[in-house]
Design brief:
Blueprint: E1 10-13, E2 16-18, E3 22-24, H1 40-51, E4 56-63, E5 74-75, H2 82-93, E6 99-104, E7 120-121, E8 141-142, H3 145-165, E9 169-174, H4 179-184, H5 200-218, E10 224-233, H6 241-253, E11 259-265, H7 274-277, H8 291-295, H9 299-308, E12 315-318, H10 323-331, E13 337-340, H11 342-346, H12 350-355, E14 403-407, H13 411-422, E15 426-430, H14 440-447, H15 455-467, E16 472-474, H16 481-487, E17 491-494, E18 513-515, H17 516-530, H18 532-541, E19 548-552, H19 556-566, E20 571-575, H20 587-599, E21 604-605, E22 609-614, E23 617-621, E24 627-631, E25 634-637, H21 646-651, E26 657-660, H22 672-685
Parallel strand pairs: 3-4, 3-13, 4-5, 4-6, 6-9, 7-8, 9-10, 10-11, 11-12, 12-13, 14-15, 14-17, 15-16, 17-26, 18-25, 19-20, 19-25, 20-21
Antiparallel strand pairs: 1-2, 22-23, 23-24
Helix pairs in contact: 1-2, 2-3, 3-5, 5-6, 13-15, 13-22, 14-18, 17-18, 19-20
């Protein structure tokens, strides 16, 4: 087997052998009930991963301290949490999957302490001393020795409860910018006492004392793993690889059962998840030296390889992993285990699919940052709408099999048809184009694939429709009232997409003005012949739109369009009629895009009133009512979609049940995440 090493067992301790080398990396989900209690949602989510065949689950972010102002986490600082945790462990063990408990407190990265004051850390730091100028890092207060002792006691007590709950081990979390990591890193730690920066022994002292305390209370054979940063980026005093190697050697001597190597970035832009987003739209200068690693095994994997050279404990590598990269790292001895995060969010069955050779059936993470969208609360996944909704969106046989027609072969229509067919319905999928995918090809070309990559969505859904389902696929067929009347389905689902309406402005239909609909038609043939990636590259050499381009629309379409054009050397400006920009773009990308466009001197004007467009450019009033003019060779109207219900309305008189999904419902349903989620929900409820 090509993935022989990845699928091979690993003896983690004398009493615990993992069935494969794949670990579910610890990641917060925000699925917990009020006051940090275990929820059915947490159990269902992790059970889907346990059933999917992973070798070990690490339950993320369990609080050992009751005061935690940031995030919806689980807890074990009190016995009242034991019943829920016992239920969780039992459900994971039911599928033969061991589970570790990772302990967490944000520490100096918190927005405040339990009393609303400064967050606590090793040292007192003022705002101007912070590693990042961004407001998400706050001035800190220094913990006293008495407080450190109290936190250590609470940490160890929580580990004792974890053992009582049935966990197979615990992970002492000292990575990212959190509590224990702040003692290891000179970014945060300026102390001069026994926990200070004079030596590695001092910097690791608290962590070692916690490990010793857990062993004393839980037994020498109770497994304790650790997670540390291999490197930190973008700040004075940030941890270097040489430092992390010395820290790892000290932890290795304590007999930890694994060392998981992550990383952290401070930087002028949000860098906490360095491997995913830092190259968008372009990496900062200080991260450019790491781009070769990023394109290879990953930014963090290099650190894991170097740490493995100096320790005996199994080493865990993480960061943008797939089955081929993981096998390469393991087979070459660069690490012993692979931690998978978003890979398993996108497809909990990833391990079983790799084991069974069903590689083409894997749902791939597209690195869209939808899961990193805090204003929306609990995590969600663009390509796995059942994440956190496993019970609600479970695909089960239909009680009554019906004749279903889905009109539109974009992501919403494909997902709906796929799921409805799996449930036993007789499904016909009608698509007017010669291939499935809809506007995903254009989106893929605009976005590129250096960071976010839409192409796997097209490939997966197309394969499921054409090779893995009983869907009657009819390409080059327009969904019409006449066709529906002839076929006489029980249900019609309209997924034809919304309308990109042009604003009512004089001159909007001039030759030098183009909307999304027209551009989609112009790009259709080149996309078909060249593919999104090749066309994306060719537009860097030739893009016949003139040098000065004005974009009307400052939400996701307009901002991503501005990034695309500016990277091709165009003189771009954005005009937005509302008072805000970036709607539809996850914050991780929007923060970086806004900063990059500002540095590139791309003017973005909000609150404008469009007057008229002529051959010279765009005439408008700014948010102060002043008359303005933007000289333009070309004007692109990249506004949000509006609903398109005409076909659905015309069908309601001849079909007993008609539904509309996806962007046909307008901007609120226009993103890929909406399309797939609405397609799944419709498919399971037909």
């Amino acid at each position: 087997m090509y993935h022989k090493t990845l699928l091979s067992p690993l003896k983690l301790t004398d009493t615990l052998t993992l069935k494969n080398r794949m670990i579910k990396s610890p990641q917060s989900t925000m699925y917990w009930d009020d006051d940090y209690f275990m929820s059915d949602r947490v159990i269902d989510f992790y059970e889907s991963i346990a059933k999917g065949g992973v070798g070990l689950i690490i339950l993320a972010g369990i609080l050992w301290y009751p005061a935690h102002p940031g995030g919806i986490y689980g807890a074990l600082y009190d016995d009242k949490y034991l019943p829920g945790m016992k239920k969780f462990v039992e459900r994971m063990h039911r599928h033969g999957c061991p589970v570790f408990c990772q302990f967490h407190h944000t520490g100096p990265s918190s927005p405040s302490d339990d009393k609303g004051g400064r967050p606590f850390g090793p040292s007192r730091l003022e705002q101007e001393e912070m590693a990042s100028p961004l407001p998400y890092l706050h001035a800190t207060r220094e913990l006293t020795l008495e407080e450190i002792e109290e936190h250590k006691r609470r940490y160890i007590d929580a580990a004792v409860r974890a053992k009582e709950a049935g966990f197979d081990g615990v992970e002492v979390h000292a990575a990212h910018g959190y509590f224990l990591a702040s003692f290891l890193s000179r970014v945060w730690n300026r102390r001069t006492d026994q926990y200070g920066i004079q030596s590695f022994e001092n910097r690791t002292r608290l962590m070692v004392e916690i490990i010793d305390g857990i062993r004393e209370r839980c037994g020498e054979d109770f497994p304790v793993g650790v997670r540390i940063n291999g490197e930190e980026y973008g700040a004075k005093g940030a941890m270097t690889l040489e430092e992390s190697r010395e820290i790892a050697k000290i932890l290795d001597k304590k007999g930890v059962c694994y060392i998981s190597v992550s990383g952290y970035g401070f930087g002028p832009l949000p860098m906490t998840y360095v491997p995913d987003y830092f190259p968008y739209p372009e990496p900062e200068d200080y991260m450019k030296p790491y781009m070769d690693r990023y394109r290879g095994d990953g930014v963090y994997a290099y650190c894991a390889e170097e740490i493995k050279k100096v320790v005996n404990a199994p080493v865990v590598a993480v960061g943008r992993m797939d089955e081929n990269k993981a096998e390469r790292i393991l087979s070459r001895g660069k690490a012993d285990l692979i931690a998978l995060g978003r890979t398993l969010w996108a497809d909990p069955e990833f391990p079983n699919k790799v084991r069974d050779g069903r590689i083409d059936d894997i749902v791939r993470c597209t690195r869209c940052a939808t899961c990193e969208d805090p204003p929306r609360g609990a995590r969600r996944c663009r390509v796995n709408p059942a994440m956190g909704r496993e019970t609600e969106l479970e695909i089960k046989p239909a009680a009554t099999f019906r004749k279903v027609m889905v009109i539109g072969g974009g992501p919403a229509g494909m997902e709906c048809a796929r799921v409805a067919s799996l449930r036993g319905h007789h499904v016909t999928l009608v698509e007017k184009a010669s291939r499935l995918g809809g506007r995903l090809f254009l989106a893929s070309m605009i976005k590129g694939s250096d960071v976010e990559d839409v192409k796997p969505v097209i490939k997966y859904l197309t394969r499921q429709i054409t090779e893995r389902s009983g869907v009657d696929l009819r390409l080059n067929t327009k969904g019409t009232v006449e066709l529906v009347a002839k076929e006489r389905p029980d249900v019609v689902v309209v997924a034809t997409g919304g309308t990109y309406a042009l604003p009512d402005v004089p001159g909007i239909r001039r030759w030098n003005v183009q909307g999304v609909k027209t551009m989609s038609k112009l790009a259709a043939l080149p996309l078909r012949v060249l593919g999104p990636d090749r066309l994306n590259e060719l537009t860097r050499l030739m893009l016949p739109l003139g040098s000065r381009i004005t974009i009307i629309g400052g939400q996701i379409e307009g901002i991503q369009g501005a990034v695309f054009l500016k990277k091709r050397g165009k003189n771009v400006a954005v005009l937005e009629t509302s008072d805000h920009i970036g709607e539809g773009i996850p914050p991780r990308y929007m923060e970086r895009a806004a900063d990059w466009l500002k540095k590139k001197e791309v003017p973005i004007s909000t609150g404008v009133t469009l007057q008229f467009i002529d051959k010279e450019g765009v005439h408008y009033r700014d948010d102060q009512g002043r008359e303005c003019f933007r000289k333009s060779d070309f004007v692109l109207v990249l506004t949000r979609q509006t609903p398109e219900h005409a076909l659905a309305d015309s069908l309601r008189t001849i079909v007993p049940e008609v539904h509309v999904i996806g962007s046909a419902n307008g901007a609120a349903s226009s993103l890929i995440v909406h399309a797939i989620a609405e397609g799944r929900a419709m498919g399971v409820n037909l």
